[in-house]
Amino acid sequence: MSDPRLTLFDGQVAHVSLQGRVDANSFTKGTWQRCGKSTANLTRANGSQDKQLLLGERFLVISQNDHGQSFGQCERDGYVGWVNTNDLDADVPCDLKVVTLGTHCYSEPDIKSAPIEWLPMGAEVVKHSEQSNAAPQFTAISITKNQIGYVPSPHLAALSLTSPDPVIVAQTFLNAPYLWAGDSYHGIDCSGLIQRALLSCGIACPRDSDQQEATLGRVLDEHEPPNCGDIVFWKGHVGMITDENQIIHANAFHMAVAQEPFTQACSRIGQKEFGEITSIRRLSA
User: Residue 269 contacts by C-beta under 8 Å, 6 or more apart in sequence?
Assistant: First the structure.
């Protein structure tokens, strides 16, 4: 049975790839668009939030409703859901991505100018052709068709650039507030933290913890000690080992991304939250 989180079908309209597999009123190829806000919530039909899109992220739209929402699928991880139509923009290829925890986009190439927008790690932007007008420490980007913004150049990198270590990426989020279905430093959840850490290192990663447990790496043998970078799963929760004694995870106990002793976390989670560990997985051999 298809995972509804990954099935591009809103109950009425489906993607053409699903012909013969779902009972839809109509099928369509859809239209690619991109997220036009720093973050945009992806929700279910009942309004509950599943994840967030980041600025510049591609989204394949197959339908729209009467409430100003578009249904589609995220290119990043295949997740489907509803997004406010006004939060989407044209599918213009991006050149650069934000590689710091976050950054400001300014109205002028001057740190004292008014900020236009906050951009999260992983946001993708279009470099503007009028770069020559920017001070050397800024990069000009296109905010809308008729608006230019300026981002500190050290905060941007080519889309192909990857970080060397997912643990270091995860640790940059320390103390970020916990937010169910959040995907940025303004708020992030346990599986969102793991996904962002891995994607920043060029490692494909699904969005939810059960999907991650089913696909990432290999399961450690019973007597193998966990190493730095290993991913620990509970039923409904996930974290990453940072050394032989510590784990980092976004969690509702601290209501933040926290690093704490592994045994302490296991005891509390086992007794009061998600039960026993279901697996520990290693990304590399």
Answer: 234, 237, 275
Class of domain 96-158: mainly beta
Q: Quick one: DSSP state of residue 166?
A: H
Query: 132, 135, 178: which is closest to 154 by C-alpha?
Result: 135
pLDDT digits (tens, 9 = 90+) for 47-106: 999 999 999 999 999 999 999 999 999 999 999 999 999 999 999 999 999 999 999 999
| Section 115-123 average pLDDT | 96
Give residue 33's pLDDT. Answer: 98
pLDDT digits (tens, 9 = 90+) for 255-282: 999 999 999 999 999 887 788 999 999 9
Which CATH number does the domain 166-282 belong to among 3.30.1330.60, 2.40.300.10, 3.90.1720.10, 3.40.50.300? 3.90.1720.10
Report CA torsion sign: 189, 194, 198, 200.
Answer: positive
CA atoms in the 13 A half-sphere facing the CB of 126: 20
Whole-angstrom CA distances from 212 to 4, 86, 207, 234 are: 16, 31, 7, 11
CB 96 within 8 A of CB 131: no
- The residues that bridge with 279 in the sheet, in sequence order, are 233
